[in-house]
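User: I'm new to structure prediction. If I give you an amino acid sequence, what do you actually give back? Let's try with this one:
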Amino acid sequence: MAFRTANDAIWCRAFSLPLEGEALEWFNSLPPNSIENFARLQRLFNRQFAISSTQNLTVFELVFLTQGKEETLRAFMDRYQKIVRRVKGLSLDLSLYYILPASKSGPFKDSVCRRVPKTMEELRERAVDKIRLEEMKLSYKKENQENKGERADRGKSGGQVGKPWGFKQREPPRGPRFQQYTLLNTPRAKIFQEALSAELIPDLKRRPMPLGADGNKHCMYHKNMGHTTVECVTLMDKIEELICAGQLKKYVRNDRPHAPID
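Assistant: Good question. You get back a string of structure tokens that encode the predicted 3D arrangement of the chain. For your 262 residues, that looks like this:
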């Protein structure tokens, strides 16, 4: 792309078009109205990346790269891509090869083993999908830990004032979180079983049966009585969240994307 103009403002805006990775992040972090002209932008850029250009890494940085036991996939991929950009003369094949031994066991590594990416863009897209799933699982785990902590605090305080010790007031049934839900081609109970096996949905511990609950109804997700798996609003929300995150696509009906709640 060529620009035939002497307008510094146009040159400054066009400067970011070929940038990517760290360079693009640096450009986007520049304070507003901090660039007077294109010459100043060039000087700032050269000063920022002069050290990186003179300290190229070798392929051994990738050979000994290992994802930490507690390191998230997002943090690991950021490290990996930064190293790949700084290894001079690194071929595409080697860039893709070293991701497998460097990553720890998990869904992302399994995905790369089953079908090796052909481009860095495909590798990034595969990683983004698994990062979304990993962060969702961490969110569920944090939510469960917070709920356990709240129950423990209530137990230590001896229950509510004016209620027998350990008495838990039954919470009113909550409404659905989504205005519309995706139409499915498979019963939710079956989707739940497969999502549970794939660790997409947390396996809840069996809960005590609520007071006054209908003993003829059983929920596979909550593992207690009171409502059925089909009626479970929490499970409906979990499945809808996964679909919105790009998971469970094979269970989505293709004739109509959404339908209003009954």
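You can read the tokens as a compact description of the fold. Here is one thing that stands out. The CA atoms of residues 68 and 104 lie 8 Å apart.
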